[in-house]
Amino acid sequence: MYLDLDRTPAGRSELDVTGTVALGLGEGYAPEATISGELTLQNLESRVLASGTLAASGMAECARCLSAFALSWEVPVDLMVLRDTHSEETEGETLLILQRDGEVDLSESLRECAALAYPQTTVCREDCRGLCASCGADLNDGPCGCVEEPVDPRWEGLP
Asked: Are 105 and 79 in contact (CB under 8 A)?
């Protein structure tokens, strides 16, 4: 996932992006993501702006039943390559890369974008019933057979 500053035409152009990045989010999250899509490039005099929305996919763990499933999510990308390597410029939310010419490796910037866009809660499906709190059985496979304990009447008013 490289951007060649020397061969990028002036003005507006497109960059096809395809590759795999290690997310490094920890246990229970997708260890890596496959990213694909197209970024719009604006090659200006002293900078190149890259923006767009990429598609990411990877294997994740369901937060309710702990089963592995394929997860897809959108990754908004907004980054800038400054050709003035001594610049003190900041662009707020925009990721900033300082490089005068040659190929720019976008892998780390795209990894950050994918990690930031990763869903906070991953669920294999909306109607996932999760695990039994008593025996740990997967309730998606059917009832577990545990005997329900009587509910304290003081808690009945709570949802």
From this structure: no
